[in-house]
Amino acid sequence: MYDFAYHKPSSVADAMAALKAADDGKFLAGGMTMIPTLKQRLAQPSDLIDLSGVGDLVGITVSGGAVTIGAMTTHAAVATSTDVQSAIPALAALAGGIGDPQVRNRGTIGGSVANNDPAADYPAACLALGATIKTDRREMAADDFFTDLFETALADDEIILSVSFPKPSKAAYQKFDNPASRYALVGVFVAQTAGGPRVAVTGSGQNGVFRVPGMESALASSWSADAVKGMAVDAGTLNSDIHASAEYRAHLIGVMAGRAVTAAG
Amino acid sequence: MPEGGTGIGAAVKRVEDQRFLTGRGNYTDDLNRYGQTYAYILRSPHAHATINRIDTAAAKSAPGVLAVFTGEDMEVGSLPCGWQVHSKDGTPMQEPGHPPLARGKVRHVGDQVAVVIAETYAQAKDAAEKITVDYGPLPAVINMNKALAGGALVHDEIGTNLCYDWEIGDEAEVDAVFAKAAHVTEIDIVNNRLIPNAMEPRAAVGEFDQATGEYTLYTTSQNPHVIRLLMGAFVLSIPEHKLRVVAPDVGGGFGSKIYHYAEEAIVTWAAPKVGRPIKWTAERSESFISDAHGRDHITHAKMAMDADGKFLALKVATKANMGAYLSTFAPCVPTYLYATLLAGVYTTPIIHCNVKAVFTNTVPVDAYRGAGRPEATYLLERLVAKCAREMGLSQVDIRRKNFIPSDAFPYQTPVALQYDSGDYTATLNAALKAADVDGFDARRKAAEARGKRRGLGFSTYLEACGIAPSAVVGSLGARAGLYESAEVRVHPTGSVTVFTGSHSHGQGHETTFAQLVSDRLGLPLENIEISHGDTNKVQFGMGTYGSRSLAVGGEAIVKAMNKVVTKATKIAAHIMEASESDIEFKDGQFTVAGTDKSMAFGEVALSAYVPHNFPHEELEPGLDETAFYDPLNFTYPGGCHICEVEIDPDTGVTTVERMTAVDDVGRVINPMIVAGQIHGGIAQGIGQALLEGCVYDDNGQLLTGSYMDYTMPRADNLPSFTVGTEVTLCTHNSLGVKGCGEVGAIGSPPAVINAVVDALWDLGVHDMPMPATPQTVWAAIQAARPAAAAE
Question: The complex's ipTM?
Answer without folding.
Answer: 0.96
